[in-house]
Amino acid sequence: MLNSRCLIVLSFFMATSTLAQAQSMLGVRFPKVNVSITLDSIVYKQPNNIEVNVAIINLQKFKQKLLFSGKAWGLCGIVTDKQGKSVTELQCHAVLESQIYTETMLKKMHAYRYLKPDSSMTHHYHLSNILVLNFHNNQLPPGDYTLSVSYFGNESNKVSFSIN
Questions:
Q1: Is the pTM of this model over 0.90?
Q2: Structurally, how many domains does the chain consist of?
Q3: Would you say residue 5 lies in a domain?
Q4: The CATH number of the domain where 36 resides is what?
């Protein structure tokens, strides 16, 4: 049985369609949830102040154990410009983390949350804690953009915003 550290690494490096195949082959199950994102604004003057509100909704008929706390566990994202071209250098910022967490460490950190059916949890993340942009200082230049995220392969809605 794989521990959550392996699951996190697998989720970062596999595309969504491959993720389901990997789950099947490895005998593990990632949570099946609805992911919804909003932004605090649609127009930003400072490109380094983009806060992303991530809501996880349990649409299953049973309680799910989720790795969802203040850290961006299992979250990946992509930002595209108005032509639909990705401006994302690295979709999962967490892969840059030098710390590898064991199951025991995650439990001690209270990283897991239990989500009842038809319930939701929301956390706020700075965009730079979810992904890395391919611009100097990880800041977007003026323009129009679209953001979407995924949580262990569960895709979110898309939100649009502008940098002035």
A1: no
A2: 1
A3: no
A4: 2.60.40.2970
DSSP structural state of residue 74: T
For residue 11, is it within any domain? no
Per-residue pLDDT of the chain (164 residues; tens, 9 = 90+): 344 444 444 444 444 445 455 545 555 578 899 999 999 999 999 887 899 999 999 999 999 999 887 777 789 999 999 999 999 998 988 777 777 778 888 888 888 899 999 999 999 999 999 999 988 888 899 999 999 999 999 999 999 999 99
> Contacts by 7-15 with C-beta closer than 8 Å and gap 24+?
7/152, 8/67, 8/73, 8/74, 8/94, 8/101, 9/95, 11/74, 11/76, 11/152, 11/153, 12/76, 12/91, 12/92, 12/94, 12/95, 13/95, 14/153
Residue of 1, 8, 30 whose CA lies nearest to 106: 8
Residue 1 within any structural domain of the chain: no
Please check whether residue 85 lies inside any domain of the structure. Answer: yes
59: containing domain: 31-163
Q: What are phi and psi of 33, to 5 degrees?
A: -140, 165
